[in-house]
Automatic annotation (TrEMBL):
Catalyzes the oxidation of hydrogen sulfide with the help of a quinone, such as ubiquinone-10, giving rise to thiosulfate and ultimately to sulfane (molecular sulfur) atoms. Requires an additional electron acceptor; can use sulfite, sulfide or cyanide (in vitro). It is believed the in vivo electron acceptor is glutathione. It is found in: Mitochondrion. Keywords: FAD, Flavoprotein, Glycoprotein, Mitochondrion, Oxidoreductase, Quinone, Transit peptide. Belongs to the SQRD family. Belongs to the flavin monoamine oxidase family. FIG1 subfamily. Its EC number is 1.4.3.2, 1.8.5.8. Its cofactor is FAD. Its main location: mitochondrion. One of its GO terms (cellular component) is mitochondrion. It catalyses: ubiquinone-10 + hydrogen sulfide + sulfite + 2 H(+) = ubiquinol-10 + thiosulfate; ubiquinone-10 + hydrogen sulfide + glutathione + H(+) = S-sulfanylglutathione + ubiquinol-10; a quinone + hydrogen sulfide + glutathione + H(+) = S-sulfanylglutathione + a quinol. The gene is SQOR. One of its GO terms (molecular function) is sulfide:quinone oxidoreductase activity. This is Sulfide:quinone oxidoreductase, mitochondrial.
């Protein structure tokens, strides 16, 4: 049996905080290093936990506020990935290497990189404990034929291999029974796979199945309607409330539980399986962030942004873009002893890749209401939006968002809607 692993979310910000506390290693735990040994200071005005999208973006913005020498980022990984590209990497439309840059190159110059893992938060004392150990990632990913997952750097290229090797039978795409990063990525790779099978003459032998733990295809009616049309016209089968619980890789069988009838399972033979693993935040996180200000509800000098938070919106780079502009204002106000009035509206966006040259650009807020930037019907599949997703967004990410200059498209939206939206 192949166990379905758990992945982690990241990033929270502690301004006016921390220090690295020397601690006594527990028996059997890896060696812990103190501040002195890693040449980091033991106090930073702003400490950013996690060098993902939210962490790097906020460290750039905080550097402008308090100066590079007063900011540190705790991040164990050597490489930073632009993960939205993995949808296209899994479908063979982009190379994995184009999504990667050294962490050292994305940390703003002068900001201290504490290359370690956050082990413990101690917000009562405005301090954290770090552990100098690389998180153990499954190196080879799952080494089974016909299985891939766009959700890990170790397995995304296996999706492309599984697609190329596919001959016939069920091509199954899963969605787990937990919140996940970019909740539509599991179906984007399905549409791309369907298009690939058509392109390569394999479509007639493929039975394409989306087995999802959810009860709907998309949480916003306007986009759900558009997607259901596509699903119908491309002859895709969707089974709602089906949760993957086991993969028998030796027999190429996937076992699903019917969530409406607990204990009832169904076994599928697969010719290809795209797995979306269950995900959740690391244990150390404080899941109590105000959804408007992004400030912690109990500890006023702790803030959250990005995938690690409990914000009831989806976990995307576009959401982080919207959040960082608000968080910047919140932190400025807190530093001045004032209360900020700017509130995050839950803005998030998902370029729904529906084939190798088409995208539906979904954009919406906390109330699952469309909040579209462009004055056109964005629920239509468009080539222009594909180019925006595949070619313009990476540039905006590396040069705008991560550098602290892009706070989401709200100003463009207002301009294009003559201030009415
Ligand atoms: C966005 O701001 C963003 O972050 C940089 C993305 O992530 C890569 C996106 O995919 C999208 C769509 C946006 C929103 C930007 C515009 C211009 C609609």
């Amino acid at each position: 049996m192949l166990k379905i692993g758990t992945m982690s979310f990241c990033s929270c910000v502690h301004p006016l905080v921390p220090l690295l506390r020397p601690v006594i290693p527990k028996m059997g735990s890896p060696q812990l290093h103190t501040a002195a040994r890693c040449a980091a200071k033991d106090y930073y005005e702003v400490l950013v936990l996690g060098g993902g999208t939210g962490g790097i973006t906020m460290s750039a913005r905080m550097k402008r506020k308090v100066g590079a020498g007063n900011v540190a980022v705790v991040e164990p990984h050597e490489t930073h990935y632009y993960q939205p590209l993995w949808t296209l990497v899994g479908a063979g439309a982009k190379q994995l290497a184009t999504s990667a840059r050294p962490t050292a190159s994305v940390i703003p110059s002068g900001v201290k990189w504490i290359k370690s893992t956050v082990q413990e938060l101690d917000p009562d004392n405005s301090s954290i404990l770090v552990i100098y150990r690389q998180r153990s990632l499954p190196k080879g990913g799952f080494n089974y034929p016909k299985i891939g997952s766009n959700y890990s750097v170790n397995t995304v290229e296996k999706t492309w291999k599984a697609l190329q090797d596919f001959k016939e039978g069920n091509a199954i795409f899963t969605f787990p029974n937990t919140p996940v990063k970019c909740a539509w990525a599991p179906q984007k790779i399905m549409y791309l796979s369907e298009a690939y099978f058509r392109k390569t003459g394999k479509r007639a032998k493929a039975n394409i199945i989306f087995n999802t733990s959810l009860g709907v295809i998309f949480g916003v009616q306007k986009y759900a309607d558009a997607l259901l049309e596509i699903i119908k016209s491309r002859n895709i089968t969707v089974n709602y409330k089906y949760n993957l619980i086991e993969v028998r890789a030796d027999k190429q069988e996937a076992v699903f539980e019917n969530l409406d009838k607990p204990g009832e399972t169904k076994v599928y033979q697969y010719g290809m399986l795209h797995v979306t693993p269950p995900m959740g935040p690391p244990d150390v996180l404080l899941n109590n962030v105000d959804k408007g200000t992004l400030q912690h509800k109990k500890y006023p000098n702790v803030f959250g942004i990005g995938d690690c938070t409990n914000l009831p919106t989806s976990k995307t780079a576009a959401a982080i873009a919207g959040q960082c502009a608000v968080l910047d204002k919140t932190i400025s106000s807190v530093m001045k002893g004032q209360t900020s009035t700017k509130k995050y509206d839950g803005y998030t966006s998902c370029p729904l890749v529906t084939s190798y040259n088409r995208v539906i650009l979904a954009e919406f807020d906390y109330n699952a209401q469309p909040l579209e930037t462009f004055p056109i019907d964005q629920s239509k599949e468009r080539l222009t939006m594909y180019h925006m997703k595949a070619n313009m967004m990476p540039f905006l990410y590396w040069n705008g968002l991560l550098k602290g200059y892009w706070g989401g498209p709200a100003p463009i939206r207002k301009l294009l809607h003559l201030g009415l939206k």
